[in-house]
Each structure stands twice: as C-alpha cells, then as structure tokens.
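[09:14] KT: can someone run the structure on this one? pasting the chain below
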Amino acid sequence: MRFTPVLNILGILLAVLAATMVLPMIADIATGSSNWQAFAISALITGFMGIGLWLAHNGQTDFDIGLRQAFLLTNGAWILIGIFGALPFLLSNLNLSVSDALFESVSGITTTGSTILPVIERASAGILLWRALLQWLGGIGIVVMALAVLPMLSVGGMQLFKTESYDSAEKVIPRATQLAGGIFIAYTSLTALWAVMLTLAGMPSFDALAHAMTTIATGGYSTRTLSIAAFDSVMIEIIIIGGMIIGSLPFAHYVALTRGGWRNLINDPQVRWFLSLMAVVVLVISYHLTSLQYGTAEALRLASFNAISVLTGTGYGTANFAAWGGSATTILLICMFIGGCAGSTTCGVKIFRLQVLASTIKVQIARLLRPHGVVLAYYNKRPVSDSVMDAVMGFFYLYILCFVILAVFLGMTGLDFQTALSGAATAISNVGPGLGEVIGPAGHFGELPVFAKYAMCVGMLLGRLELFTVLVMLHPGFWRR
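[09:31] RB: done, structure tokens below
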C-alpha cells in the first residue's frame, strides 16, 4: 500500500487543526486566562507534526487515492484529530487525566457530546470554544465523508448515494474537495444564521456562537452545566430545535437549494420518514408526561426539545428525562439508535437503512405468499439491488453486535445495568447523555472507570465511522498486496 498520499493529507489536516487552536488561544488571552499557554503549546506540537508530515511526503506528484488508502485516511483523520485535539484539555488548568482529556476530545470530534466535566462553567472561554470547534469540525467532516467517501467504499448500503457523489471509485480527494466547497458555504452560513438568531433571542453572544456550532453539528456540547435549561427561554429552545432538525437532514439538498433544487428536499423519502417519526415520538412522550401531572403546554415543550435532541443525537437537555418513567426512557433509548438522514451530521443506524430494512421485510413476506413471483425492493422509487440489501442488513446486525459487546464490557468494569446499557448506546450512536444517575442528563462521564472511558472512545469512533470503515482494517487481507 502506498502511504505517501495518506500521510501527506493527514499532515495538512493536522496543520489546519493547529491553526484552529489559535482561535481559543485568542479567546483566553482576551479574557485573561492562563490557558492560552496550553493552546499555544498544543498548536506548536500539532503544527510541527502536521507540517513535518506534509513536507516529508510533498515531493510526490501522484496523489490518487484508491480504496484501501481511503479507508486508512478516513480512520487516520479521526484518530489523529482526536488525539491531538486532547492536548489543550490535557495541558489546561482543568487538571484532567489522559483518559479524561482523550474522552472529551473524541466525544467532541465525533459530535457525541458526552462530557467528563462536572461543572462546565469552571472551564475558560478558550476551552469552551475549543469544545464547540471540535464538534463543528467533526460535523462538517462527517458530512463530506458521508457524501464523498462512504458511497465509494460501499459501507452499510451507502452506495445508494453514489449518484450524488459521482460514480467514479477513484480520485477521492478531488471529489471530496469539490463537495466540501459547497458544503462548507452551506454549513458556515447556517451556523452564522443560528448564532444571530440565538443572540437576538437573548443568549449572550459567546454562548450563541458556541451553541450555534454545536447545534448545526448535532453535537450537544454546551457552555453551561445545565445545558439549555440554564437559559430557561422558550424562544431559544425553539431556535435550537430548528437547528437540530436542520442538522439532521441531508446537506446535499442545502447545496441544491442555491440552484433552485428545493423540491428534492421535500420529496426525499428520508426527510418525510424522519419528520413523521419525530412527530410521533414527540406526541407519544407528550401524552405520557401529561399522565404524570405535567400541564399540556409544559409536556409538549419538554417532550419536543428532549425527544428531538435524543433522536437527532445532539444530546442537549432541558430536563432529567431519565426520571420520566420506564415507557418514556425506553422510547428514548430506542431513539438513540435511529439517528437522522444520510449525508447529515447525525449518527445512528440512519433513516434510509430503516427504509431499506422495511422494504426487505415486505419483499420477504410477498415471496412467502407468491413463491414464484418476481418481487423487488424499492427505495425512492428505484429498485434496491441485493448487494445494497445485504450491506444494510450486515450493518444492522454488526451495529447490534458492537452495542452488545460494548455494553458487556462496560458492565465488566463495574457499571450497573442501566449505565452500561445506555452508555454503550450513547457511545455507538454518538448521542451524548445516557440514562441513570451517573451518566444521565443530570450527571457526567467523569466518574466512569478509566477502562470504561477508553472503551467508550472506541465505541464513539466505531459509530461515527460507520463500523465497517474501522473494522475492515482489522482484516489481514487489508494490508496484503
């Protein structure tokens, strides 16, 4: 395997990450925090490694990336950014351990939103901005990867979207670069718009910027320990609900909107299924809350924000939904696995895979009734090939298997059943808060055992990179000529 193009691009990514560290350093200098030194040192280390890799491998003229290099680049990018992104946390005055710093960084870049900080307000402005930046970068990174790389790699049925990412299975970087330009404009514009709206709704400008970045990225890192509940504003909650929904829809449609392609967004079956499912979940939980003596308006407000936050994998909270009773928490636990649409910033199984699975079930039932009939599965009015159906079913089975293994491992570290189960779900689905007193909406992940934190880091990376992208590298055949 030719490693030169992969290392060259990884060097560029690390150099960009080092340049990004300058922004929180400036924020700490402006607020008089000594943490600016942590960002300065981290930027120097990261920049030195990035520029060194780039210079060492920049003499080559052929930078075409094949299938195996694309897998390696995708994994390497998220792992390296997770490691080097932990440096500011490790060197700051928060006095974090290596496991805590790595957990916070990986949770940020994978847009999971789980935090080990018990009191977030104690962190400096630079640390808060860095957390938001990690999630913002992770959000746009996963969108570009989902549109440009995963369809070419045929991961978990993503080959369904090859037509939106060009048909060629070669030269990944030119295609990703072309897509990234339009995605970056749409992504940045939406972030700026939400920052302005949150400011106008009464949120302080710094908090508005940080929450805009983590909302569009469906990440969930907040600048307050109480998350969005700290602001106690219906208007802020409505704006953030809109941002979470926007971040959960395919970003390719936002690029098409600039060319008058708004009909594609409306007619996309993913979008219709997602919005319909979201409405059903909100209504069911609202009805459940009214039975717990909540007023109708309050029940609708609490259910709308928290259910949509969990369904989209954002992880914000305005209430301790773990205390809403068994039926509500069961529904929310199931919602953790679902996620949003393909090509969005969300994770989880994704709506399109549920649609393909539903179509596959219909085909199997029809074949039982008509054994000699020719019955085809359809997605978006197009026949679904057997290879796509097999890929989706394989992804679904592997998703459940990874969840079970991670839950068992977390239980072996000494966690109780609810914490282990919801911890595995929130890690593999990149949601954020779990259930129970320890990692629920009112808790944090700092009290988990060290090995549980490392295991959840692996789970977060597995879920963010669609499982097969990581596990294929463990096969011996991947490294053979």
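[09:33] KT: thanks! Residues 163-170 have pLDDT under 50 and may be disordered.
[09:34] RB: yep, looked fine to me
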